Amino acid sequence: xxxxxxxxxxxxLFAEPKLDVSSETWxxxxxxxxxxxxxxxILKNVGDDTLVISKVRATCGCTATLLEDSIIPPGGETKLKxxxxxxGMSGAFHKYIYVYSNDFENPRISLVLTGKVQREPAPRIRVxxxxxxxxxxxxxxxxxxxxxxxxxxxxxxxxxxxxxxxxIQLEFMPEDSIPPKSSINLNFx
Length: 189
Hints:
Number of strands: 14
Largest sheet: 5 strands, mixed
CATH topology of the largest domain: Immunoglobulin-like
Low-confidence stretches: none
Mean pLDDT: 89
């Protein structure tokens, strides 16, 4: 009788949950900026005790996750849905998702979303300086300040209107559009 109890007790001592992911990395390939991309990771419990997923954390606000079940019985599986918003992204990316569980050997696993985001051709504006501080100007005096407007995009940037604060005037508008990869200076007085 003692041997049977000891054998049963020793089996319970070695029962452990074990988290397995068939693929820890997913490559979306090339995406267009603004496109929403989704992937489902399959999380399996290949251990012989219940696996509890305590937390799922994405390292970037552009990545959202939804875990189907946090408790996985031995031999069971669950889905972790991930979605990536690409608005404002450009170039290659690596986004990480951390999954925390009661797997004693590996309590945290890293899942990786990779790919490349291509921007649609568009004009892109940059203004320098962004703030202009004027010194005290005596009545009758004029101070001219220059603001550079750059188009670092791939298409022409059309300027329809320039608004100023009261008492400040645009001297003249050199052009109504800025070609790609070019800039103009606006003189204000």
